[in-house]
Structure formats: C-alpha cells, structure tokens
Design brief:
- The structure holds 2 protein chains of 2 kinds.
- Chain A is of the alpha/beta class.
- Helix content of chain A is 40%, strand content 20%.
- Chain A folds into 2 domains: 170 residues, VC0802-like, CATH 3.30.2130.30; 211 residues, HUPs (Rossmann fold, 3-Layer(aba) Sandwich), CATH 3.40.50.
- The model of chain A has no long low-confidence stretch (mean pLDDT 91).
- In chain A, helix 5 packs across helix 10 and helix 7 packs antiparallel against helix 8.
- Chain B folds into 2 domains: 142 residues, Alpha-Beta Complex (Aspartate Aminotransferase, domain 1); 248 residues, 3-Layer(aba) Sandwich (Aspartate Aminotransferase, domain 2).
- Chain B contains 13 helices and 13 strands.
- The longest helix of chain B has 20 residues.
- About 2% of the residues of chain B have low confidence.
- The chains are: A alpha/beta, B alpha/beta.
Amino acid sequence: MSKHFMFLIKYAEIAIKGKNRHLFEDALCKQIRHAIKNYGITGNVSKQPGRIYLETEDSEVYDDDRVCEALQHVFGITAFCPVKQIPVMEFDELTGEVIRYMEETYGKDCELTFKVFARRIKRTYPVDSQTMNATLGEKILDAFPGMSVDVKEPQIPLHVEVREKVINIYSLEIPGPGGMPVGSNGKSMLLLSGGIDSPVAGYMIAKRGVKIDAVYFHAPPYTSERAKQKVVDLACQVAKYAGPIPLYVVNFTDIQMYIYEQCPHEELTIIMRRYMMRIAQQIAENSGCLGLITGESIGQVASQTIASLSVTNEVCTMPVFRPLIGFDKQEIIEIANKIGTFETSILPYEDCCTIFVAKHPVTKPSAKVIRASERHLEEKIEEMVKTAIESAEMIWCK
Amino acid sequence: MREIYLDNSATTRPLDEVRAIVSRMMESDYGNPSSMHQKGVDAEAAVRAAKEQVARALGFELRMKPYDREILFTSCGTEADNLAIIGTAMAYKRSGMHLITTQVEHPAVLQTMEFLKELGFRVTYLPVDACGRVSVDDVRNALCEDTILVSIMAVNNEVGAKMPIAEIGAMLKKERPDVIFHVDAVQGFTKMDLLPKKMGIDLMSISGHKIHGPKGIAVLYVDDRVKLKPTLFGGGQQQGLRSGTENVPGIAGIGLAAKKLSETKREDIERLYELKEFFVNGLREIPGIRVHGIPTDNDNEPDIRATAPHIVSAGFSGLSKAEVLLHALEERGIYVSSGSACASNKPSVSATLKAMGIPKEYLEATLRFSFSVQTTKEDLTETLEALRALYPALSRFSRR
C-alpha cells in the first residue's frame, strides 16, 4: 500500500477565466474539502499561484487509492499527482532520495523512458535547474540499466521542485474527471425517474459546475416504497459528484388518476409529462434554480419524439437542459456504468411513467389537441398541482 | 395505526419466549458445543434439549444413544432441502439416477433438481390438479426401476394446497420401500399432522422462522435407514453430516418454538380453519375476487379442510398488478404478499398458479394472505373491509 501525503492538483479551464479565476479556484477548493470529508480523509487544501495542494494527515484508515477515488469525484480537476515531499537538503542527499523514489515507484528493473524536469524556486539553493537536470539524469541512468532518456515524449516525466522549505518529487499523473467545480455555475432542477438516463443527465450537467436539486414523482400505491428508495439511492450516487442533493418527492397519484379519467388514454403520457414539467418548474423557481434537466434523448420512446418534446417543452419558461439529446442508449449506459448508477437503475420497480402507459401512445401530438384535452382538467387541476407542490417531501441525498 | 400482519408464510413474529431464550443463549450460554470445558458441555446440553423438543413435535422420542443423527440443524429451510436432495442423490446414485418431484415445489427444491439434472440425473416434475395437489397415482406411475428419491412438499407456499403426504408415504413403503421419501414441510409443519415415523417419511425439512422461531435455523429430519452424503465439509459436527459450529441460540429457539406450537396444535389448526372459512366466505362476497385452490367435497360444497388452514390465495380480476393493491393495503397497516414472497420481487409469473391452470387474468393479480396463531378475527374483518373499500377503486384504474 503506497502512501503519499501531498497531492498536486491540476486544473485547466479554470485557469483561463480572467478576473473570476479566484472564484472558480475557491469553488474547487471547497469541493475538494467536501469530497475528502465524504471519504473520511482528513487533510488540508491550500491554494498557491496556479496550483492547488491537498495535504493529507497520516491515517490507518485510508491509502492512496481512497484519496484518488475522492479526487476523481471532484469536477474541475483535470489531473492530480501524488507527491513525495522531503525537507530541503544537500544535493547529494537529494540525488539519493530521487533514486529511492524511482525505485519505490517503478521498481529496480523497469524499462521506461524518462526526462527530469527540475525547478529551482528557492533561489539560494546552490545547484541550478540545468545542473540538476543533467546530474539527476545521469545518476538515474547509472542506477537503472533498463531506463533511457526521451526528451520529447518521456513515459516518466520526473519533476523535482526545490521550494523554499520543501522539495517535491513527482512523476505520476492521474486523470481527474475534468469539467468545472460544482457551485461555480448556478443551480438547476433535475427530473429524476429511476431509469438509466436521468441520473446520467444530472451527472453531465453537474460536470459543468452546476449544483443539482432533484424532483421525483411518486405514485403510491402504484409505485412502491422500494421504487422511491431506488431513486434516493440514485440521487446519492449522483451526489458523490454533484455534492448533496435535495430531492423533492412529489405525490403524483391524484393528478395521474385525474388525467386518466378526463383525457384520451393515448395522450396520458404526454399530458402527464407536461404537468411534471410544470410542477418541477414551480419547485425549481421556489428553490432558486435557473433551469430544468431531463434525461430525454430524441426518439427513444414515444414521449421523446421531436413532436412530443416540443409539446412538453411548450409549458416551460425556464431553459430545459437535455444533455443526452443526441446520445444512443449504449452511450448512456456506458456513462451510467462509469458513474455507478447503472446497477441501481435496472432494478425492476415500476415508476409512474410505465404504469398506465397506453399500448399505442401518440408519437406526433399536436399542441393544439393536447391543449384542448387539458381543458377537461380545468375544474380541479390547479388545486391538485398546488397541493402536490405544497405536500412535497424533501430528502437530503448525500 | 394498528398493524395487521397477514404474511406469515413469508415469516412470522417470534414468540416472546423464543426471543428470551435466544437472548439468554447469547448472554450466558455462549459456549461452543464442541469445547471440552463446562461452557461447551452446557451448550451441547442445550442442543440436545432442542433436539428432544423437535423430535417430540414430530411424534417420536429421541433414543438415548449419544450419536443420534435423526435431527440435523441447518441454517435455513433451503439448506435442509439441498442437503436432503443432494445428499440422497450422491449417496444412492449407484442404485439409480431418477428423481421425482412436483411442478409446484419451492425454488429450494426445483433449483436443486435442476442442478442435479446438469450432473446427469433424470427428474420427473409431476403436474398438479386445479387445486394444486399432486395425486398418489401420478407418483406411483412415475416410479421407475432406478428411482431413488421422491420429494414432495407438504403444503404449497403460494396457494396452500395440502398434498396427500401420508398416502404417498404409505404407497411407497408398500410398493417401493427402497425409494427415499423427502417432504419439504417448511409450510406444513404444525399446520397438519406430519409424523415421519408413522407416515413413511424418510427426510423432512422444517424452518424456524415460519413457526415463530428465529431466522437462520432449520431442521432436517433424517430417518436412521437413510444414508446421506454431506454437502458441507469441515470439522465434522453433527456426525459429519453438517459441519460447522452449531447455531446454539437459533437451535434453542427453534426447539422451543416447535414445542410451544405443537402443544396447542389441535386447537390452533381448528381455530385457523374457522378463520379461513370466515375469510374465504368474506372474499367470495366481493365481486371480481376468485379464491384459488379450494376443492369441493362430494356434495359439491367447498372443502376448506382439504387445504392448509393458514394460506388463502385470491385473484383480483381487473387489476393489472396485485402489487398495487398490496401497497394500498400497506397504507392501512395491512401486510400481505403477492404470489409468494420468494418470487415477488421478480417480475415473473408464478409457476404454481400456471401449473394449476389459473386463468391468465389472475396470474399477475393474485395476493396471498397467510395467518398464524397470532391472527385474530378482527384482523380479518378489517382486512375484508379494506378490500371492499380499495379494490373497486383500484380496478377502475387498471391498464387499458
């Protein structure tokens, strides 16, 4: 079990955000602190010009793998490097440390190419960076017969930085999830169903730095407590990336039944979705969200043809983000597997969209016809929507 | 809200006395029965006492020989069934490779049979009648020269059909005494007479948590004449037939539960039949409900006593999924099961209902109500009221 106590964290896009840069950096630091806490890691996150360091405390409980897992859940990190940190020392001694580092990390018989990137930040250090590059390179070639130098594309980019009080040695670069730190781009409301797509949609929007709230439409007794628990589990999984998610559980049974009784059966799904959008938008406004997120993908089901999407979209005044719109099912499943939601998504509990679905739902609805059908709901629907919103239960998923 | 628990075929609430003895065994009598010291001796005595209690509940006295192996303790009914079937098949495979069972057994039996099929055994799955019962003649006709085992459940877990166990046992003893007869009595034990020594039963599985005992403990009765190969290997506990340290608290629990329930068995069965009669009559008054698996007697009257006293299976026409009604009842504190609990979290259709030829519209719209000694008439009155209120409304909203 290898163990490092210092991690150098690299980010790309944030560095070009001009005067707002510090805001993005602060958001990233905050998310890193949140992530390590979630994984039971204690440590200190510090910001230095152009880079962020995570210094972890020694513990029996976690190792590098755990720290890596935590950092791989923080959007905004493009890569991070486990760093061997030693006090400033004489160059001879430093050479010995570098050799030891190479041996610990790559083994005595390794056959890889390398290049030394030495930096002398401490100006009073007697050996300059050019000399360090040359001398360290030579010593490594002597110590590891299998290694060779490649200055263009080294397999091991060995960094040695002599700073004021410490020397950093690092060479491994582990990719992070990329994106922008959550919280740097406002908040949106995710319509979470329990299927494969919606958690992936939430993940993708969170990746662009958007904080996520979520809404789930529950239809007891037609959908079970287990179906609800499944959605909570999915929200918790997305929260590993997006930070804590408040999940609003809306009781949709009465509205669904009312639509079922009053409207043509083949229009049930589309009218239901319009009311889900209306309710989600209302809750989103109340909680300060600026957009809605759905997992829709063109043509996947009857309610996701372009005609259906536009009829559903008609009731929204907020922007609706559909990050999966051009994705095939297989592509969505790949991401679901990567973020760990797939196994939960395929548990066989019915959600409220599938229960009363018609054998042949409309695939080319006309807005005019749907609006006419909705007029049959005028008597009670406003009151029902109000009740549904007011009685929504909020569950923190983290 | 008052809780009405009608899912006793899934599991039962342990008796207070059982909870007490399990807790005591964990607190003070925590020894390993195999240890040489006094703690071990005490634990062994507790195991011995439980064996005696179970034996008595099965209608015989344990002989005083210290190495008897008639009562084996296993971790669950499934393990008992596995040990009975695989253990017999392995021990007798030189005499024959043919096994007989029914189409409506619990998966613990059916899946084990499928496993043996892969090993080259032949398996006959007998059909059942419209009430879920296998016939003695069908068993007789299925017997081949190389049949080594007949495995038939006492009571079907999904519909409560009572199998003619005593008749099959007698037939086998008379016509084919070489064939081993296993009975899965997980649902039947304490709900009907099951006396292995009098009924020609060689192996019988019993589960603790279906008789108000703890979970994680079961019994396999093994007649002295049966050679059994173990399926777990290790320290050689329980005469080498079931290695692994005995679950002493569970064993004490199942022993006590078996004793308590068999003491009042006569009266309990009588009372359960009265409850079942009351409930079935109530269900039949509600339009659209079909009670499955109740045969009629010679006067064409429903013969409830030909079925198990504690299970009622009913179909609800016009309901696309029984689960909806299940959750609606749950909102009123009434707990029931759709089909059987073992299969209910899978979207598959019950093999038992299919084998009985139940009309298609009921296959996914069937609920199981199962009673126990703790069930009262008020429970059932309230459940009928709830059904009368909920069912018509829910069937109105089914998938068109």
